[in-house]
Amino acid sequence: MDAMAEFVVGNIVRRVLYIIREEDLSLTTAAMVGLNLSAVSDDEDDADRDDQPVLSATAIATASRNALHPPSLQTLLEDVPDSAAVQHTSSSGRDSEGKSKSADKSSRNRKLKHDVVEAMNELIQDVSTCHEPIVVRVEHIHQKYLFLEVILTFGSSRTVLQFLCVAKERKRSFLVLVAEGAPRYQGHLLAKELVTRGLQTTLITGSAVFAMISRVNMVIVGAYAVLANGGVIAPVGLNMVALAAQKYVVPFVVLAGSHKLCPLYPHNPEVLLNELRCPSELLDFGEFSDCLDFGSGIGASLLNVVNPTFDYVPPKLVSLFITDILWSISALLIQCGDAMHSPVSAITVSH
Amino acid sequence: MDPRRTARTVSDPKVRQVGFFTPPPDHAISDPPRHHDPIQSPSQSSPPVNDRSPSDSSLSPVMIPPPRHHSDALLRTALQATSPTKPFSPSTRTVMIPPENKDLRSPGRKVVYGKSPSSFSGVKASSVPASELTTVSVVNLALGISGKILTAEEAGGASVEVQNDRRASSKPLKEKTSKAERRALQEAQRAAKAAAKAEGSKASSSASKVVTSENTKPIKATKPSSQKNDGSQVAASDKKGGDRAPEKDRKKDAPHPRMQYDDTSRVEKAKKRAVVKQTEARNRVELFRHLPQYEHGTQLPDLETKFFELDPMHPALYKVGLQYLSGDIYGGNARCIAMLQAFKEAIKDYSTPPEKTLIRDLTARISSYVSFLIECRPLSISMGNAIKFLKSRIAKLPLALSESEAKTTLMLDIDRFINEKIILADKVIVEHAVTKISDGDVLLTYGASSAVEMILLHAHELGKEFRVVVVDSHPKLEGQLLLRRLVRKGLSCTYTHVNAVSYIMHEVTRVFLGASSVLSNGTVYSRVGTACVAMVAHAFRVPVLVCCEAYKFHERVQLDSICSNELGNPDAISKVHGREEINYLDGLVNCENLQLLNLIYDATPSDYVSMVITDYGMVPPTSVPVIVREYRREHLWS
User: Fold this and answer.
1) What are the C-alpha distances in Å from B306 to residues B302, B319, B369?
2) pLDDT band at B379; cut points 50, 70, 90
3) Model ipTM?
């Protein structure tokens, strides 16, 4: 999925930072145990040190401080094994410390790097296979409902596609209504995929959603991001679908991998968490040049084309979230999201 | 005899009070001077009658003032003596009830809608002798009112339930009669009734039977609003005497059940009579099997070649049909006006064949034109109402007129209809609506409605400062045309697509929507996507104002967008105009798993609509059936 924008990227960055901190923490606690020995060995190695006993004490203090408080990225970055860099830093105490510990630090950092890379590989694995635990849930849903269902979906989502394919494999009989998502018309893509896999598909326009919703049994959509209050950032047009589903009491199900959970709370999400795309998708450049006089200066301001990418769906319109961690409702999801991210982060992703 | 019910006071029904009102001080039962009336009920135990004249100043703005038609006043005063109810309410059918049941009638009047309150005494009422019917018709003649309207009153005897039973039982017997014959029968009966009123005879039944054999031109019956209830004709042809006519007229109130295209036998029959050869579309959507789904684009060249060959079809009609087919003319008002202009042309060139009467032959001719137009594109509700109007005018032509006089009369009538119902109505709507626009407003509109466009341009001319948001949708992209016209006039506009309506709605102060029709339960039947916009506006607490001329109102009811709709060209969905890179579905259109659904209309529930602006004023959507009931008959069809 392209254009997933900042949310998921921000989430992944936060998780990577979390991994680094975690690994470092585990290494530091291990190192604390053997630090006394290494401090002694340092004294022996660096003969030009006068205050070795003091150093060893501060070394221990530093190490314990690092262990007790979550280290800032500053310290982590400074401990990067680069002797040239260490010489240039200004903090004297740390410098000498760094130098003295550089030998074992370098080995420690190597281990840290190794652990971090391993953890990141796991993360990549998780994200790319996030579909599996989600699509497994399909049988739970279908068992409860009627034999022939009509499912409405919107735009194009890989998760939804796999979900529906698995449902078909399990011999559920249903009909899919795909709403084309103008102006990107992703619905066409999804319809094509479904048809080639043998599912009964009907393509409708986005404007016909309200007309058809009375005959729909369930709405299943994917999301770009899930916010901390349970709100969903979704392709534009889904708020309309969610409102229609609420009016006709049709379950509105959102499929989202756990990497899409953001610790953000939406304040004016339509504007602040949105992105405006090129207006030429709606109105071709120059199409209105015959009736607008752009040269006069006022002409251009007469016509304003708005093409947002995202829509915010408030949590009360969503019936169910299906993710790869938990099959849960919104409240549980929030806790899950909080647990995953460290509460303190020096870097914030800007929007 | 229900003692509980007599206690209710009833106010003067000629002032139909639809808003909040305080019950008037109890006027004594004083009979205003009335015409001497043969039907003077012995016990004038009518409920307290308000002597409010139509020009009572105590009407609040919410109320719909009663029609000020002169003849109506006469009619009302005459019938005041006979029945305490307003002439055009369904309950006036109580006129025929034997007097001792009158007290039952009045309390029940308000409770029951659409049924005769004589349901209390239903069984008894059906045995009303025909003699009483004659006297009413004499009364009406004295007033010079057309007999057709008052035949509703004649039907006072039978309750609707009894009617239904009779109709239902006779229907299986009569299935063999083709629709064409039945329609011809009914129209002949209507014409004959007009004749019968003039002569005061009851020989209409014999006359109509003669006509049936004459007129065998096949007519396809698919229009919902313009056709009379076939069932009524079925029952009518069975019955003898005056009962037939009144039942039929009352059943005209109930909309005709539309032809369902999943009934293959009827579809086959219809196809045989069709002028335009249609091939059925592949990949028909199951849910919409009851609607016609045809291949688009195949009929146009075919019809164009036949342009000079089709004798029965007038070229003006043909042209209009082709314009509908190609989509050159769209929009309720435009289509209606084009059709009426074409009818004018056809009438101008019409000459009565020998041995046929103008009325019947012209009516049949018009029906055939209409069925051709349906094949080009299903009728809109506005067109259906216009056709009903035209047919009623034809039927009411006095027989004494010469052919040329009749033709000029009809053409003048058509002109008057277009002027009053469409052009003047739009002016009135604009006058009303601009009062709702204030400086600093942000107005949202969807698609391209002629009424809304006029409102916006007029408000701009008046110097109001406002912004317009035009919401558009694929595949029609009608909003771009509206946008073009607005920008040219210098309005500042924002353009977006329907999916983004939640994004833009938080800046919008009012929503103006146009409508193809407003139905009797307040549902707005309009371009697909209107319901979405109205729903989102409602969620954001933005008032929704629907602008619709009153001639587009219809007495039918619709719950959702599926039972009656129009299906457009499915290929229009797979292709995106102007963006050739969206070609994901190329080559897949023949796959049997894929269906493309291109709805044209949808039904917006009335709770999303704050107000309907019509030429009768600004009313809530619940007032629409009142307008249909009170104003439709005399203003549209008299």
Assistant:
1) 7, 11, 15
2) confident
3) 0.71
Question: CA-to-CA distance for B635 and A64, rounded, in angstroms?
Answer: 94
Angle between helices B147-154 and B244-253 (to 10 degrees): 100
Quick one: average pLDDT of B415-435?
92
Determine the residue of chain B that is closest to A192 in CA distance.
Answer: B585
Mutual angle of helices B315-326 and B358-376, in 10-degree steps: 20
Model pLDDT for residues B440-474, shown as the tens digit of each residue: 999 999 988 999 999 999 999 999 999 999 999 88
**The overall pTM is greater than 0.95:** no
> Which of B40-49, B192-201, B382-391, B629-638 shows the highest mean pLDDT?
B382-391
pLDDT at B637 over 80: no
CB B604 within 8 A of CB B531: yes
Confidence grade of residue B566 (pLDDT, cut at 50, 70, 90): confident
The residue range of the domain holding B539 is: 436-565+600-635
Q: What is the pLDDT of residue B133?
A: 39
Contact B474 A206 (CB under 8 A): yes
Q: Which residue of A has its CA nearest to B530?
A: A207
A240 with B602: Cβ contact below 8 A: no
CATH of the domain at B377: 1.20.120.420
SS3 A250: coil
Q: Whose CA is closest to B225, among B569, B599, B558, B583?
A: B558
Among candidate residues B363, B394, B421, the one where a domain is terminated: B421
Say which CATH number the domain at B611 has.
3.40.50.10470
Interface of B with A in 124-183 (CB under 8 A): none
Pick the closest to residue B449 from B331, B320, B566, B361 (CA basis).
Answer: B331
Give B516's Cβ-side CA count (13 Å radius).
Answer: 24
Cβ–Cβ below 8 Å for B578 and A284: yes
* Nearest residue to B623 via CA among B611, B635, B632: B611
What is the least distance, in Å, from the CA of A29 to any CA of chain B? 51
Q: List domains and CATH numbers for chain A.
A: 123-296+304-336 (3.40.50.10470)
Rounded mean pLDDT, B414-433: 92
* Cβ–Cβ gap A188/B488 under 8 Å: no
DSSP output for B293-346: -B-SSSHHHHHHHTTTT-SSS-HHHHHHHHHHHHTSS-SHHHHHHHHHHHHHHH
CA distance B539 to chain A (A): 8
Instruction: Please give the tally of structural domains in chain B.
Output: 2
State the best of A152, A205, A241 to mutate against chain B, taking most chain B CBs within 10 Å.
Answer: A205
pLDDT per position as a tens digit, A2-56: 344 577 777 778 778 877 887 888 877 776 766 544 444 444 444 444 444 444 5
Last residue of a domain, one of B421, B447, B481: B421
Question: Three-state SS for A175?
Answer: strand
CA-based radius of gyration for chain A: 27
If you write DSSP's letter for every residue of B528-559 in order, what string do you get?
Answer: TTHHHHHHHHHHTT--EEEE--GGG--S---S
Same domain, B296 and B337: yes
Q: B360 and B291 in one domain?
A: yes
Chain B contact set for A244 (CB, 8 A): 532, 535
B499 closest CB neighbour out of A181, A244, A288: A181
Q: Which one of B491, B499, B506 would you mutate to disrupt binding with A, by most A Cβ within 10 Å of its Cβ?
A: B499
**Which token pair is A300?**
């251009």
- Chains A and B form CB pairs within 8 A to the count of 181
Least confident of A211-225, B30-44, B550-564: B30-44
Chain A positions touching B528 (Cβ under 8 A) are 205, 207-208, 211
A310-313 β-sheet, strand order: A225-226, A232-235, A310-313
Helix, strand or coil for residue A152?
strand
Nearest to A311 among B472, B503, B531 (CB): B503
